[in-house]
Write a structure and sequence with these properties.
single chain, about 140 residues, mainly beta, ten-stranded antiparallel barrel, 10 strands
Length: about 140
């Protein structure tokens, strides 16, 4: 059963020795149960008009999909590298995604999803990323 939730996203990334971050809170939806669920919300700012879906399978494999003007699909799975498409205003990139940590403690009552992953382009790491997504009932 799908229900409305409040989603807080804390994103920190390191690029060329510089650390930057973003924190945002949006209203979205949650559907599923512990370890197998989907969180969906609409982007704002420069990505306004895009829809994000975060699907978690078995509490360990995350598929983040952005639809709309900048379509993207990242597969984040601890210990595995996936080649993924990432659309930007400058064009489409094929990036490698490798997760070192995925921790899911979300169920139909809310909770937290945390994961650390790197993005690589060619032979080099582009950025190290750390995300915490907290879901609470609306």
């Amino acid at each position: 059963m799908e229900k409305e939730v409040v989603i807080k996203i804390v994103d920190r990334h390191e690029l060329d020795g510089d650390t930057d971050g973003l924190e945002t809170t949006v209203v979205g939806s949650f559907e599923g149960k512990k370890d197998n669920y989907t969180i969906t919300y609409a982007e704002d700012g420069e990505l306004e008009g895009c829809q994000v879906s975060i699907k978690v399978e078995n509490g360990e494999c995350i598929t983040m999909t952005r639809s709309g003007m900048f379509e993207t699909e990242l597969i984040i799975q601890r210990g595995k590298r996936h080649n993924c498409s990432y659309s930007t205003p400058a064009g489409l990139l094929m990036l490698g995604v490798f997760a070192s940590r995925v921790e899911s403690d979300i169920d139909e009552n809310g909770g937290k999803l945390e994961f650390d992953y790197t993005l690589d382009l060619g032979a080099g790491v582009v950025s190290e990323n750390y995300l915490v997504i907290t879901v609470t009932e609306a």
